[in-house]
Write a structure and sequence with these properties.
Order of helices and strands: HEHEHEEEHHHHHHHEEHEEHEH
Radius of gyration: 20 Å
Shape: globular
CATH topology of the largest domain: inorganic pyrophosphatase (n-terminal core)
Number of domains: 2
CATH class of the largest domain: Alpha Beta
Structural class: alpha/beta
Bound molecules: manganese (II) ion
């Protein structure tokens, strides 16, 4: 990985060096703990590199970075440049013409031809890093060079990495982070950050504010002035929703297909967790957890598999369902999902081999 990383560092360095210090830099990040941690790393490190107008904007509930809504929201901020992290990469780009640095690790849906775009993706590296890990590795040498190192922010990289890749993630710096901030508080920060977007309130501003200000991961549990008490309430709500969702039993596709289906109805974003849990119990299957209670007019679903021979985005898109608006069938080889109108989701299930009406 180090050759690719060195190259990525050099090009990211050139991208940032090409921006004036007072350029408005908008950091647009995914709402999960990896995305928010990557966003907070850019939000806190870019000012140390001398930039004076930096803001961090998380993605909305079920929002694609390449949707009209997202583009309008970002355009209104009048960015001189964008950093887009943990939200995928697509040929048409987020704001074509606006210089954009993508920092990502998902399976790219094409590469922007826009000469103003720079893509740093860990997809295809060995091991594949996550976004916060990548953000830290890109920013640390630049900050060092600028005389304002970011070692004190390493815990943000660890929070994102543990969230996406687990405690055993192969990031060499994880050990140092655990020594300094302890496994307990890093894990606690991961759980509380993710609880906020999984809760029915979908409050991503509270964890972001804490990640942007805290000097220790324990602040997410203890800094009540910045909303830590709200995070505790979100965790309780999500745990209750999860206990309910665990009662669902799987249905299996006919005809020897790999698919298993869990049907859920919850206001909380528990479907990724349920899919992940059943992935472990059904290692020879591809599990779909479908939630009819999360979005008003759509079925939100997560697909997970332990099988290395399956490419879930490709299999889902091969059904030919959907309008191509980028609302499902992205992500990683073994983790995908999205949301579809109920009728389209029913068609998807049929094409995957489930009996109609089940
Ligand atoms: Mn990620």
């Amino acid at each position: 990985m180090s050759g690719a990383l060195d190259e990525a560092r050099a090009s990211a360095g050139r991208f940032l060096a090409g921006r004036p210090a007072d350029a408005r830099l908008v950091v647009y990040c995914h709402f999960d703990a990896d995305g928010l941690a990557a966003g907070a790393l850019f939000g806190r490190a870019l000012p140390r590199l001398g930039f004076t107008d930096v803001r961090v904007v998380p993605s909305g509930r079920a929002e694609s970075a390449f949707s009209d809504d997202a583009r309008a929201r970002l355009r209104a901020l009048a960015p001189d440049a964008l950093v887009v992290t943990d939200l995928g990469v697509r040929a048409d780009g987020v704001l074509p013409g606006v210089p954009t640095l993508y920092v990502d690790h998902h399976q790219p849906d094409g590469m922007p031809a826009d000469p103003a775009a720079l893509v740093v993706t860990g997809y295809g590296w060995h091991p594949i890093p996550c976004s916060a890990w990548l953000a830290y590795e890109l920013l640390a040498p630049l900050a060092e060079e600028a005389g304002r190192p970011i070692d004190d922010l390493l815990w943000l990289g660890a929070v994102g990495t543990i969230s996406d890749l687990g405690e055993k993630a192969p990031w060499p710096r994880l050990e140092e982070a655990r020594k300094r901030w302890t496994a307990k508080w890093l894990k606690e920060a991961v759980v509380l950050t993710n609880a906020a977007r999984r809760a029915s309130a979908f409050d991503v501003e509270t964890p972001l504010a804490l990640l942007m200000t805290a000097d220790h991961p324990r602040a997410l549990a203890e800094d009540v002035a910045h909303g830590a008490d709200r995070l505790a309430a979100y965790r309780a709500e999500v745990n209750a929703a999860l206990a309910e969702a665990r009662k669902a039993a799987p249905a299996f596709a006919a005809g020897g297909g790999p698919w298993a289906l869990l049907r859920l109805h919850s206001g909380c974003q528990v479907h990724p967790l349920i899919a992940q849990q059943w992935r472990g119990r059904l290692p020879n299957h591809a599990v779909i957890a479908a939630n009819t209670g999360y979005l008003p007019d759509a079925v939100a679903f997560s697909a997970r598999t332990a099988r290395r021979d399956l490419d879930l985005p490709a299999l889902l898109r091969a059904t030919g369902v959907g309008d191509g608006s980028g609302r499902f069938g992205h992500g990683h080889d073994q983790a995908s999902g999205g949301h579809l109108a109920p009728a389209a989701f029913a068609t998807l299930l049929e094409r995957l081999g489930f009996d109609a009406g089940r």
